[in-house]
Amino acid sequence: MGKILIIDDTPQNLDILLDILDEHDVSVALDGESGVGMSDEDDFELFLVDVVMPGIDGFEVCKILKQNSKYAKTPVIFITAHTDGDSIDKCFEVGGADYVSKPFHRATLKARVDTQLRLYELERINPRH
Q: Which of 10, 75, 100, 121 holds its CA 20 to 30 A away from the CA of 127?
């Protein structure tokens, strides 16, 4: 149903996300460095990335992923408590496809994940240049 990597340093967030996305094949990284490393070892169809993490923050993780030709078109959905205009703008400036705000709303999160996975699949079937 979609291979997803969640990169988040908060165990409570991970528990909630894993519960909401239980029909997907989900892997977890507890920090940006681990997430980038895991992305090299596997093929993911979507990334859910927390913005605020120690070490490499979510924006930097997204930049690194987008520089890799393997993930240039793979959607990144940011997880953020910062919903001011500047923070949201930055999510898109660094290559994010969408964002979800904390606290999570089950239906919204599922809809955004499912939409991005469908768009990604359509892009793979009929790539735009």
A: 100
